[in-house]
């Protein structure tokens, strides 16, 4: 059951898209008259088949895109059988209202370019504004993902557009470095040679230029290393003394 492809006014795509603190739009309010909506299990857009629950990139304008999850694929007879999808938005950094969230500019720096926030904001969009399928991973999976590209996003918090709140809140996000700030995969980090602690080079006085040659040890590991060296020296001295005694015995 494929929905035919149809051309829509690009303006309509733009209008259907959220900006920050817009209220949730539900399906019934967008139905212009009470004519039935036909539901479909899948749809084809530009040769690609899409299903419900696929996460997709949606065209905003020539330069930017949105990310959303397809909830329903439908044809609205009220709109002359325009193939549509009900979607649930993932907000990006640029869609968030940080004033309401009380997130300072210094803290916003720790939200990455590929970070998205699943929301409870739903809309109906024309199917033809769908560009491609994308993947949204949890931040922990994203870190281990060697193939980072424009179609892979990550998330670590949900955004409730009605309550204007992040879950978990920014203050509860996992922290890194001695500055104790959340990780931003766009930033440069250097790992301790002994344990798995990661820090911003500038936070531990390392200049960016020679980062590859630097062997960094965090403070606890530095102390541990010193203790181990001392112990080794002691052991060596005992061995030397033993050999010396053997020589005379
Ligand atoms: Zn730091
Ligand atoms: Zn360490």
Features:
alpha+beta, metal-binding, 249 residues, Herpes Virus-1, binds zinc ion, 6-stranded antiparallel β-sheet, two-stranded antiparallel ribbon, 2 domains, 6 helices, SH3 type barrels
Number of domains: 2
Average pLDDT, rounded to a whole number, is 82
Q: Ligands in the structure?
A: zinc ion
Shape type: elongated
Low-confidence spans? 1-32
Assembly annotation: single chain
The sequence of SSEs as H and E is: HHEEEEEEHHEEEHEEEEEEEH
Q: What's the N-to-C terminus distance?
A: 96 Å
The SS-based structural class is: alpha+beta
CATH topology heading of the largest domain: SH3 type barrels
Relevant CATH superfamily of the largest domain:
Bromo adjacent homology (BAH) domain
What is the strand tally? 16
Number of helices: 6
Helix content: 10-25%
CATH architecture of the largest domain: Roll
CATH class of the largest domain: Mainly Beta
Major beta-sheet overview: 6 strands, antiparallel
Indicate the proportion of strand residues.
25-35%
Q: Please tell me how large the radius of gyration is.
A: 27 Å
